[in-house]
Amino acid sequence: MAQQKALFLESFGGEFAVRSTEIYKPGKGEILVKVLATALNPVDWKIQVFKMFVKEENYPAILGSDSAGIVEALGEGVASFSVGDRVVHEASFSSNKYAGFQQYVLVPAEIVAKIPDNITFEQASTIPVGLATAVEGLYGDANRGETGAKKLAPPPWEAGGEGAFKGKSIIVIGGSTSVGQYVLQLLKLSGFSTIITTTSLHNADLAKSMGATHVIDRNADLVSEARKILDDPIDIVYDTVSSKETQAQSLDLVAPGGQVISTLFLQVDKADYPDKSITEIYADLHLPNLRALGVSLYGKLTELLASGALKPNRVEVLPNGLAGIPAGLKRMERNEVSGMKLVVKPFETP
Question: Per the record, a Pfam family (predicted)?
Fold first, then answer.
């Protein structure tokens, strides 16, 4: 049986180790991708440290949510891609065969996009989960069926979506994070006129280049500074940081009847904010309830990247391929990465 290298989280709360595993065969409607670049995300170290998202019985587990590479093999019925195509897609740690921290990965063809010539594999690998999280938070259903909060519709890549929210205002906490950069770009495409974001001031120019109209120092009093800018109460705050402190700030800012979009679980007492909604995101486009949104997005992603309407994150490539991931995750855990996406090349693994 053909073998590949993969990075396993060996046990629940355990250690990472590179070792060999099988190369998968694509099923009906699937593509086998040779992974030439994969990116690190905060969720990867949080799974190890906080023992979240991956069930104990599913270990040893392969993590990783971002993949860019070339089509290695096609499953039955796949006609929209050819072997050798440069592609990008979201990976999923719901099953090892779909996870990103390995040299070959399976993915449903309908949530894959071709990489345009102006984007490198390394740049492309910064896109999938950050963009998916931004998209699900703004334009997806999330838990809105339970809360009654409204999503933005239509999204800007669909008919009638571009510029649809002209004159509207919004606040994004953490505009220089990977997710934050995609949120800012999507809001700009959707036409929001006032886009306020928080970031470290050394990332202010980056945030403005992505679409922010106003930047507030992340260490400033957000509530008072935002109210100096806004003429009217705000209906939506997108909190990409989602700490207890930023969730409380977001809920203080949003108007009665408004919503806070959170990338992590609720850490404040919702009972203190009875007239405000919390939209919680789990943006895995492999899931059935998110698949239609993913198909819509990936159907237009090549065009959005080729035109420059969406730009990837800035990249730092780590040495030693998959073996370099654990040290990179430690840097992220210590909050030592700012305005940058850490990427590895799996075929550089010793």
Answer: ADH_N
The reported pLDDT for the residue numbered 265 is: 87
| Helix/strand/coil for 169 | strand
Predicted pLDDT of residue 93: 96
pLDDT at res. 126: 98
Q: Please tell me the distance from the alpha carbon of residue 160 to that of residue 177, in angstroms, as a whole number.
A: 28
Distance CA(130)–CA(109), nearest Å, equals 20
Structure confidence by residue, pLDDT tens digits, 121-150: 999 999 999 999 999 999 999 999 999 999
Angle at 318 between CA 104 and CA 284, to 5 degrees: 50
Whether the domain at 3-126+312-348 and the domain at 130-280 fall into the same CATH topology? no
Alpha-helical runs (H) found in the chain: 42-50, 121-124, 128-139, 144-147, 178-190, 204-210, 222-229, 244-253, 288-307, 325-333
Q: How far apart are the first and last CA of the chain?
A: 21
Measured in degrees and rounded to the nearest 5, phi and psi for residue 11 equal -155, 170
Distance in angstroms (rounded) separating the CA atoms of residues 37 and 71 = 13
Q: What is the DSSP string of 249-272?
A: HHHHHEEEEEEEEESS---S-GGG
209 contacts: CB under 8 Å, gap ≥ 6: none
Domain segments of the chain: what residues?
A: 3-126+312-348, 130-280
Give one word for 29, left, alpha or beta, with left for phi > 0 and alpha for psi -120 to 50.
Answer: left
Domain 130-280 has CATH 3.40.228.10: no
Q: At residue 53, what are phi and psi to the nearest 5 degrees?
A: 75, -40
Which CATH number describes the domain made up of 3-126+312-348? 3.90.180.10
Average pLDDT, integer, range 251-255: 95
CA separation for the pair 91, 78 (Å, rounded): 18
The total number of residues written for the chain in this structure: 350
Reported pTM = 0.97
Please determine, for residue 314, whether its predicted confidence score (pLDDT) is greater than 90: yes
